[in-house]
Amino acid sequence: MAKPMVKLFLFLLFLSLFLILSLLRSRSPQQPNFVSPNPSSSSLQIQIRPGIRSYDDYLKLQLNKTLNPRLRRVWATRDWDRKVAVFHTFFRNLRDSGFLSNNSRALCIGARMGQEVAALRAVGISDSIGMDLVPAPPLVVRGDFHAQPFNNDSFDFEFSNVFDHALYPERFVREIERTLRPGGVAALHVALARRGDRYSANDLYAVDGVTTLFKNSELARVRNVDGFGLDTELVFKKKKRRR
């Protein structure tokens, strides 16, 4: 009698482990197939940094910063009010310029702890959410900007200041255009006058390095900004579908 009970116990144990692993896998961000970035595909406007051997290596590099306990403590405390105030100024300008409204459904890409989301909600855009590799509930959900976990045409407005962290800039932009509704607006803050930190995956040298990636949108505005080391704001408007 003891042996059948042991076998049943072992069977249930292995079944439980299988179900747990399956659940964790289903909750992890969808990863794009890794293709080693080809330096020849870069241009004078944007350069992909060499040395990434796999997509797991790329994710580990990004998570080294995002999961750093000291940085997360700083982002959630000392930096919080300062960053929310700066983002509030940016979003209020976009709203006053007609690119954003209180009825917009908004997404912040690479939002870390969610300062951008808090700023959007303070401006009056209550239907706002952030996305990052590491979630920060209730403001930020888990997701990979190379393969957003959202349906097509989900948002009226998308903002990001992490374009330099994209290993595949064309996929980064393609996902924005996929999840943005026709007539929707995408605002990117990028650095042209200086290089990013050691966690950046690409270096941008001209606005054309971004604008040529948007296939279904028009450049609506370019202006200088002072946003935590980023100096240029690019605003795109997705084309409406022809009837």
Automatic annotation (TrEMBL):
Cited Pfam families: Methyltransf_11 (PF08241)
GO molecular function: S-adenosylmethionine-dependent methyltransferase activity
Keyword Cytoplasm: no
InterPro entries: Methyltransf_11, SAM-dependent_MTases_sf
Signal peptide: 1-26
Keyword Membrane: no
Keywords: Signal
Domain Methyltransferase type: 109-187
Protein name as annotated: Methyltransferase type 11 domain-containing protein
Organism lineage: Eukaryota, Viridiplantae, Streptophyta, Embryophyta, Tracheophyta
